[in-house]
Amino acid sequence: MERLYTVSKEHIPDPPVRGRAPIEIDTPQQHAKRLQVKPSFAYGLLATQPDSLSPAVPVQRDRRAMSRRPGQSGRIEKRGGSFSLLFYRDVPGSTKRQRVRRTLQATTMVAAKQEAQRILDAEEVNTAAHLEASRGPVVTFGVAAELWKSQQLHANGKHSSKRTMGCELNKHVLPLLKDTPIQDITYPAIRGLVRAWKEEELGNKSMRNLFGIVRAVYNFYLDETLQHGKTTMLPWLIKWSKVEPAADVEADAPCFTPEQMAAIVEMGRGQYRSLFAVAAGGGLRAGELFALRVEDVNFKDGVITVRRSIVEGYGRYT
Questions:
Q1: Is the overall model pTM greater than 0.70, yes or no?
Q2: How far is residue 311's CA from residue 255's CA, in Å, rounded to a whole number?
Q3: Which contacts qualify for 67-75: CB closer than 8 Å, 24 or more apart?
Q4: Distance (Å, rounded) from C-alpha 234 to C-alpha 40?
Q5: Within its chain, how far is the Cα of 89 from the centroid?
Q6: Among 69, 90, 127, 156, which residue has the least CB neighbours within 10 Å?
Q7: How confident is the model at residue 43 (pLDDT cuts 50, 70, 90)?
Q8: More confident residue, 172 or 68
Q9: CATH fold for domain 141-243
Q10: Average of per-residue pLDDT across 300-311
């Protein structure tokens, strides 16, 4: 039994050119035999209309190399009485380079060359690591943070840490660093981050905890890239002591006097009176107080042993 196949004009090949072999069109049976699939599947491949096909995109080979980078060392330009440095910076995820102009503070050509060299060394535009970093896609801090939350924090963190660190990351860190490339988390970026936290009137302890979260996300992504081969990220070298703001002189935190604590205990009723008395005399945290049991109290020696704590209904041993 013969079958009829309809071919649109777009599928009809051009007439063969003299001197060349004619182009043959496979039938579904021939196509299926060549692809080792069923004829029905091959017929669907042949019957696909050109409108449903995505346009072909030519693959451009990255031919960049450290030996073929004209203008990368920069040049000094003098306009009027001021000097400027012009150089190229690689764009991550692209084979193109971005032209950068920096105004120099020098007043002589010799001083301008020295200042320009310091800028090029700080930018590291003439290093193999800078070129290699531009070959891959841009990974932002927000992407790295999502991976850290899903694979590290939620998988291995304590219940209390999952909630507090996740909230702090979403509230105080991601709004400022979400779109920043992970490789740009350097001293200037962290100093700007600390200034923003200071404007939010966060305490030094809270800012240090946020600094630890940023460091944890960076080190996590660094370890992930190291496991998959060569990485262009530098080890975390930022120290909190270098970016910590000056501590404000604060008055002593208010606390109850012995007379006030005795009055609070006296006003307590039932089990709350014992709770207030232990809190005032032992200095235990709320979670440690709520987790106390009868066997933890040695009435003979007058000793209370803290073995566990309760946080948001979950108990854990200390």
A1: no
A2: 24
A3: 69/126, 69/131, 72/125, 72/126, 73/120, 73/126, 74/116, 74/120
A4: 54
A5: 22
A6: 156
A7: very low
A8: 172
A9: DNA polymerase; domain 1 (1.10.150)
A10: 85
